[in-house]
Amino acid sequence: LPIYIYVGGSTDGYSADLFTAEYTPAGTQVWVRQWGTPDFDIGKSMCATSSQIFLGGKHMDGNLGELPPQIVSYTLDGSFLWNREYPQYTIFMAMSCDSSNAYVVAGSNTGTELLKLNSSGAIVWHTAAETGALANDGIALDKNAGIVYAVFYAYVTNGNKLLRFDAKTGAKLN
Fold first, then answer.
1. What is the largest distance, in Å, between two alpha-carbon atoms of the chain?
2. Cα separation of 47 and 105, whole Å?
3. CA distance 93 to 110
4. What is the pTM assigned to this prediction?
5. Is the pLDDT of residue 1 over 60?
6. What does the alpha-carbon distance between residue 99 and residue 146 come to, in Å, rounded to a whole number?
């Protein structure tokens, strides 16, 4: 099977947009897609399943006020699938994917949550990870064991904390 590399982030400028691109291992660009609103869209996190790409981050208006974050999804060949807004959150900081779902570290006004999204972007489950904690952009998925690992900065202890969650149910394991 051919191996391709997917990257994502934000374009530069006052009205930044999200972008994602595919490259060959030799560095040849296969395609690039740009998505955005008239406002300021910041790409912070991305992952790919066996059939699609999830790209998320932060969304701000022209006065740099926070708006609900969005996730944009494309097929692996760059065809647009959907975009969804998640008004209960403030930012999507990190993502990891299995073959069909995305696991997302999301910031909210009360702390940090871990979400599992299906291929249409619907929330399968969400669980509070740490109250008053921010993620340090660390998430990993052990597909064989069915465990999601996420790193958070805990203000109470003034240090990083590694938490484990059941990938099927979202239950905290430690």
1. 47
2. 12
3. 15
4. 0.87
5. no
6. 12
